[in-house]
Amino acid sequence: MRSLLQFSLLVALTLQLNFAVAQNNSTETAQLETIAWSPDGTRIAGSYGDARVSVWGVDNLSNPILSFQTELADKITWTPDSHYLIAQGNHSDENGHLQSSVTKWDADTGEFVDTLFAFELDTTFEFNPYGYYIVPTLALDSTTTKAAFSFRNVTVYLSDGTQVLHPNNQAATHNVYRMEWSPDGERLAIVNGATDIYTIEVFDIASGDVIQVIVPSFQYYITDLGWDTTGNYLAASSMQFTCCESWSNIGVYHVQDAEALYSYDAADRWWGNIARYDAPVAWHPTDFLLAIANVNTVEIYDPNVENALFTIAVDEARDIEWSPDGTQIASVSSNGVLELWDVPFFNSNH
């Protein structure tokens, strides 16, 4: 077990050397938005604002080894065997009707394989009673066999189209802002904006029951949500602002008792001329460590310790991902640059 002195020494450690850099393709107008590391650790996939997808080998980020066009790719993930890419996204058609889909693509050739889930709504964008857009929310479990879809309500489907959960709760008539599956796929955490009090509700998929309700200490739009690798903790990032400043608040909550373990305020975040209040978070794949994207840094925390263990100098990271072995972090900067960073090793007993 590390001593408090060792922790204090780590606070001062800042990583300055990036492992590799991939520049955004200057011939395209859309920039790299989100990334996903392949489970075998050899490749990183990224999705662009125009639904393009590129794949890089981690040993050479100078040029992608594969690029292809999808219809919808707000988020990109891998299948557990690293053979396929899963693209998720929402859009409105020429009539303004909302559509969401999950599509499967060959990670070696970029060829379309299958549409796993598709949802079409005979409606346009709506506002909830508090003046915010109600838009479809989509979450795919790690096995890519279950999808949670929300538009005013939450429904979970199997890949064969079978409906397995349609919980009767407050979210059925109001907006669900975000959903995340637990690592074991047995629980679903949703951000519920049913009132002006935001809550994180945890559902048991087998029964459809709400088994926990977490009321965050911060109360505004929750922009990121993530389970730790054990499924015992949830990290939530919320945008906060006053008349004169803006920031993100990150809370870590113990799911079993809904108690807050840690709360951290990130500094002001300005991307271009638009105030961005979201601070992406990413849990370490094996250890109890949380990476948080701050202004010009990515900071690594043990939620049991107040100060950051160390920081990485990153230009306004819009997305961050740990490597499967937990030794590197990939980040996407505000100008669409993909970077890899070496991270000091921590074992599970730190």
Shape: globular
> How many DSSP helices?
1
Poorly predicted sequence stretches spanning 5 or more consecutive residues: 1-19, 23-28, 124-133, 169-173, 267-276
Helix content: under 10%
Distance between the termini: 5 Å
Tell me the count of domains.
3
Rg to the nearest angstrom?
20 Å
- Biggest beta sheet attributes: 5 strands, mixed
The secondary structure category is mainly beta
Q: Taking all residues together, what is the mean pLDDT?
A: 76
Q: How many strand elements?
A: 33
CATH class of the largest domain: Mainly Beta
Strand arrangement in the largest pleated sheet: 1-30-29-28-27
Q: Based on the structure given, which CATH architecture of the largest domain is correct?
A: Beta Barrel
Looking at CATH, which topology of the largest domain would you report?
Lipocalin
Description:
With 350 residues, the chain is an all-beta fold. It folds into three domains: 1-30 and 235-350, Lipocalin (Beta Barrel); 32-124, Thrombin, subunit H (Beta Barrel), CATH 2.40.10; 128-215, Thrombin, subunit H, CATH 2.40.10. The chain has one helix and 33 strands. The protein has a five-stranded mixed β-sheet with strand order 1-30-29-28-27. Strand 21 and strand 22 (233-241) form a beta hairpin. It is globular and about 45 Å long. 40% of the residues are buried.
